[in-house]
Each structure stands twice: as structure tokens, then as C-alpha cells.
Amino acid sequence: MSKYYLYQDTDKCIGCHSCEVQCKSNKKLPVGPKLCEVIEVGPKLVKGMPKAAYIFVPCFHCEKPWCVEACPAGAMQIRAKDGIVFVNHDLCVGCKTCISACPWGAPQWDPKMGRVVKCDYCMDRLDQGLKPACVTVCTTGCLHFEKAKHINPIKRERYARAAAEM
Amino acid sequence: MATMLNLTINGKDIEAPEGITILEAAKREGIFIPTLCHHEALEPEGTCRLCIVEISGAIRHSIRISCIQQVKEGLVVETDTERIKKNRRLILELLLGRSPYSKELLDLASKCGVMTSRFLTGENDDCVRCGRCVRVCRDKIGVHALCWVNRGYERKITTDFERLSEYCIGCGSCAQVCPTGAIKIEDRGNERKIYTWGQVLARFKLEKCKECGRPYAPKKYLDRINERAYKTKGLELVDYVCPECVKKAERPTPIKMPFGGGDMPFAI
User: Fold this and answer.
1) Which of A124, B43, B85, B220 is deepest in the core (most CB within 10 A)?
2) What is the mean pLDDT of residues A135-158?
3) Which chain A residue shows the shortest CA-CA distance from B176?
């Protein structure tokens, strides 16, 4: 399990997809692969009002990743330092088993390079002390990236406010 | 920590860790050595012979292939001498003899100054007999569906008894690693076909995605994923859902969502 925590404040997200755009331009990806994706759920009628939810789906960096177990070439790896699941492009042979194995569709196929690409929380940026590309451009500031031990108190505060209003 | 060795490539003094090959050391320094059979993920086999370099110093003066020759202390490597260029052009001409229309080979040939081949055979087989596909199938995927047959000029890649392979799982790695695109993978309708010049290697019926109904992967391939990634967790891959539909929120997940499927679990 990665020691980081990427938290999306779903109440604030307006579904502008700028995280996706920034992710793709940071990784210089061609048309097709999306390492993170904002998925629209709805719209549904909630108390007579149409409502839609926008859920940010990156890679979850599992403790026992499906992709790492499925990979026959050892290209999918877990970084020992912080538990980030990443793909070593040099070792990828293009069998795509990781893509079919992942229950959340996190590994993606890069047709230009002929290799699998995947969210690695922008490892190179983290090592420089920066935040992942998606988090830096979030227009409403709904994406938060922190170490798991400093979990954002947003949810608790909001719950407390809601409880107080009652 | 591997011990660092000192060697010279094209007059440049470099340091390289023990155990890597000259080709890898040159690549780290940004020195281009043409090659077709080398793939970072695979064990080197030295079949294409294009990566030849001239070696002196630690070993007696000779021409060796850099994808197999390991670095040694005090090695002096030249990658672009007249002798090397001449030999490399001959190898390219020989390779072009059978594959005169292979785009990758023609690109490499024009880079090395080869315009035409003296050995044209009239064949148009893009396969350059580099063996990447055989190695990936044998060493990485571990299914041994592809193998070499015959010797010398007759040598070629095929399946057991040149029939449709029983062992192939239809992953398409062979097509992905092929440097010239000689092995092709094609999904048409609900059938996947893996074929090379003059032979169909394997045919598969594709399983349909439960969500969109699009045929997307052969049963054997999904069984393998089930075995490697799902059964190790005590789970079973029963709902075949294609990678495009798997992200859609309305889909019932094939596995139990952690935390009772409530909030999106961002750190599982």
C-alpha cells in the first residue's frame, strides 16, 4: 500500500477534466490512454433536483496489486520506498495481462510506444518534492495529495458542521 | 553495489557496473548502436549481428557483438570504425535480401548508408529471424508456443508441427516485441488471429464483455489472469468485463469493494 493518499473532495468537483488533461500532457501520452479519469455518474433526481457526481479514478496503488501479480515480465513493480505501483517500460513486453487483470482499469495501453502506461503518482515529481500533476491543476482544489498519516480533516469538519446545523 | 569498471567507448572514458553488456553501457552514454534482436526485457541471444563493435584492450583485438559481450576493465570499444561500418552494411544487405520492404529495416539501412541489396531473393518475408518472439513466449509468458525449426537459410519461426498452437494464450506479446512487425495480431468479429508470413500461428474465439457485448479477449488468456492474479487472493474472475467498461461506475464489480463499497477507496 502506498504511503500516500490521494483524496478527492467529491462535493467540490465540477467535472472539468483538467486533471486528465494535465496528466496526459505531463506524461506526453498520445490519444487513447488516460491514466486518471473523471467519471460522471448520473445525472439522477435527488430530492427533485438533478444531480451528477464526478468521481476521480486514478490508480489506487493496491497492497497486493492485481497487475503486478499478472505481469509475466516483471515490468509492473512496487516501489519499495513508498509502495507506489509503477511500470518499468523497458521491461514491458506488451502482453496486456495487467490491463485485463486490474478490476479498476488503471493500466492503459499506449499505442504509440507499444507498452503499458500507468499512474505512478508522478514519481519523478514526488522525488523533486512536487505534487502529482493532476493535483496541481485542480481548478476547485478538490484533489488533495498527502502522506497517509496526515489525512485531511475535510470530511470530519464537514460532518461536524452538518451535525451542528441539525 | 556492483563494482564499477572503467572502459573506453569511441574514445570516451566511461564507468559501467560489472555484469552489463557493452550495448547497455553505450546506451547509458547515449551512443547509438543499431540492433534488431535486442530487447531490454529479454535475455540477449545475438541473432541479428547488427550491434557488432570493434574491441581491443582487455580482450584480443576482434569484432564482437555488443549485446552479449560484457564490459571488462580496460576495454577499448569502437562502434563506428570503417571496418565495422563495412561489416554492418553487409549484414544489413543480407537481412534485406529476404525482407526488402520491411520499413524498420529500410530505416536502419538508410541510417547506415545501405541503398540496395546484392542478395535479393524475391521473397518478401518481414521476419529477420531475431527470435524475440520465441524468447518472449518461452522466457516471459512461459507457454512455449513458438519455436525454431530447420537450420541455416531454412530456419524459421513456427508452432509445434506447424499447426495452430495448442499452447498459445493469445496475449500478442510476440507481435508487440517483433522489431519489424512480421508477426501480426488481428481481432476481427469474435475471432483473434495471430499470423506471420505464410502461416496462421493461432486462432481464438473471443469472450464477450458483459457490459458492452464487445468480444475482447480469448478464454485461455482470461483463465491465465484468473490463475495468476485472482486465485492467489482467493477470488475468482467470473464476470468478463472489458478494460473500457471496467471503469464505468454502474458496473457491479467482480470483486468485493473494500470498505463495503461506500466511498471510493483511494488507498487500498
Assistant:
1) B220
2) 82
3) A94
Amino acid at B45: E
Question: What ipTM does the predicted assembly reach?
Answer: 0.81
> Does residue B79 sit in helix, strand or coil?
coil
By residue count, chain A amounts to 166
Q: What is the pLDDT of residues B193-231, one digit of tens each?
A: 999 988 899 999 998 888 888 888 898 898 888 888 888
Collect all residues with Cβ–Cβ distance below 8 Å to B249 and sequence separation of at least 6: A39, A41, A55
B248/A39 Cβ within 8 A: yes
- Calculate how close chain A gets to B123, using CA atoms only, in Å: 28
Of the candidates A92, A132, A95, the residue with the CA atom closest to the CA atom of residue A2: A132
Please give the average per-residue pLDDT across B58-73, as a whole number.
90
Does the CB of A112 have a partner CB in chain B at under 8 Å? no
Spatial distance between the Cα atoms of A122 and A110, rounded to a whole number of angstroms: 17
Task: Judge whether B85 and B112 are in contact, CB under 8 Å.
Answer: yes
The whole model's pTM is what?
Answer: 0.82
* Chain B CA closest to residue A92: B41
Q: Which of B140, B196, B189 is nearest to B169 (CA)?
A: B140
The verdict on whether omega for the bond into residue A65 sits within 30 degrees of 0, i.e. cis, is: no
Closest Cα partner for B138 from B156, B152, B159, B162?
Answer: B159
Task: State the Cα–Cα distance between residues B264 and A96, nearest whole angstrom.
Answer: 25
Residue B226 to residues A117, B223, B240, Cα–Cα distance (Å):
22, 5, 11
> What's the CA gap between B167 and A114, in Å, rounded?
24
Place of cell 524498420: B104
- Calculate mean pLDDT across residues B93-101: 90
Nearest to B243 among A5, A55, A99 (CB): A99
**Residue B13 vs residues B7, B9, B69, B72, B83: alpha-carbon distances, Å:** 6, 7, 18, 13, 22
Contact indicator for B243, A105 with CB cutoff of 8 Å: yes
Contact of A89 with A115, CB cutoff 8 Å: yes
